[in-house]
Amino acid sequence: xxxxxxxxxxxxxxxxxxxxxxxxxxxxxxxxxxxxxxxxxxxxxxxxxxxxxxxxxxxxxxxxxxxxxxxxxxxxxxxxxxxxxxxxxxxxxxxxxxxxxxxxxxxxxxxxxxxxxxxxxxxxxxxxxxxxxxxx
Length: 136
Prior knowledge:
The protein is of the alpha+beta class.
């Protein structure tokens, strides 16, 4: 998403990342990995619940497709890190698009840890929300 941030801004959209990390952990992360968009701490996972994001089970990590996706990510240079004690690694994430009026336009609630929409898909949704493309 960072690499395509200019395109996101180009359709009149912006990004807000919500993380379950606490404020101190988030501040340390941002010092090491500055992001071009805002990121906010939600250690109580209020936003996660508000958007209907679920927790998964440990057995989900053992599914063939999940293991394969993590291996692909690692071959691409991503390295897993040990979770901080504040983080719930079973908490699933999601991607949401709100329109200019603040209404939920698009929701992708992850079904497992590696289940995320691609950036091309998100850009298409953003263009639809901005009225550049017709809704499907």
